[in-house]
Amino acid sequence: MRELIIGGERIDSGSYQDVISPGTGEAIDRVSIASDREMVRRAIDIAYETFEKFSREPLVNRIKILKRAADLIESSSEELARILSMEAGKPIRDARVEISRAVSLFRIAAEEARMVLEGKVHRVDAYEYPPGNENRIVMEVREPIGVVGAILPFNFPANSFAHKVAPNIAVGNTVVVKPASATPISALELASILYRAGLPKGVLSVLPGPASIVGDEIVSNRKVHGITFTGSTATGVSIASKAVLSGKRIMMEMGGSDPIIVLEDADVVRAAQIAARARYEYAGQNCNAGKRIIVHEKIRDKFVEAFLESVKRIRVGDPLNEESDMGPVISEESLRNLQSMIRDALEKGGKLLHGGDRMRMKGFYLAPTVIYEPPRDARVMREEVFGPIAPITGFSRDDEAAEIANMTDYGLQAAIFTRDIAKALRIARELEVGGVMINDSTRLRWDALPFGGVKLSGLGGREGVRSTILNLTEVKIVSINIAY
Q1: What is the CATH number of the domain that holds 275?
Q2: Span 324-328, mean pLDDT?
Q3: 287 an active-site residue?
Q4: What is the 3 state secondary structure string of 200-242?
Q5: In this structure, are 247 and 116 located in the same domain?
Q6: What is the domain range of residue 348?
């Protein structure tokens, strides 16, 4: 049994939750959960009381903590990857990549903080008003905002923890983390490592528990000054609408239905291989997975043939098996929802080319599924499909491709495959998304750069080490009159 963490202290709350492995459908551990709001308030109060002292800690000391934590995570990387693989159902090879990214994020946060927090001096003597500017030195500094609530998704529990915690520690904020109920162990392990690295008591808490208790208290509590969230659009919009009522800073990284557009002059085989990886990596449970494939009608048949070849080579199996390319989806509920989406697409006229069935394996496995020409009102074309289902549809004109790409409420990322870069750039300008990848995967993400979307894919600031530092600090102007 794993205890929750309040301000660095391990607490047995007396209430517990089993952690179910998607690969087996069986419990792999139990965690103590925050079962009442008073426990959440206690964690927030501790973070609030700790903030003043921690925010005045010299930056060099916070940087040292982050670097030591990175070293400790790296030295435990294989153990952490196995935990991640078991609790999230992520193939072990992909789990190792995620832990490696978390290590890198802690180091990037340590380095970026030096630069982003430097501040600047404004030449106000360039302005006529207010009078007397020739005798003023005006500095712009950045200060931490206070307590930050971090709400994590199930699909990247280690990487999202690093994204939401490391930059905030770097700037001097204190953090209360709510991990996803399906994947709380990684967050508890990383928090323990941070305290081993010298993080002062009180700075960080990790509270597994129901969203109706932990999440709601974090969002509504006035001692929390910022919310950083990754998860579904429905949840994100609900959180944002409550958080702004108390003036909280928000960073909401939400859902996506990322289109992959393949033009008639594309390298069909390469585009198909990249699209298959973008769709089925981690069983399609990535916000920036390529979720809709839009192919020019002149090459559609050739693309489908190449895509199916790639799909048939996907090895589905136990996440801990080194040979597995794809594992299970996160839960029985998720699997059933995906099956209903498949039925909807087929009933409306889509053609099943591959998969479509639950696999006869222990756990929550859905076969990699390909649906040809589902109608535009099918759920797989309109909603975020968080699972291994690839709808493929055709187009005849470039403006039609952009129209299909833009027809959802989401706007995270998109990919365009073509040898005509000028045409790709013209189409990119028409796409309502936060990022366009030309001749590359929608899955591209640079942890140091801004990441997020438009429409219902993102609200508030973009995520990324530098972006988080900027979004979760306050600008303060300090003017000195040297003629006084």
Answers
A1: 3.40.309.10
A2: 98
A3: yes
A4: CCCCEEECCCCHHHHHHHHHHCCCEEEEEEECCHHHHHHHHHH
A5: yes
A6: 258-438
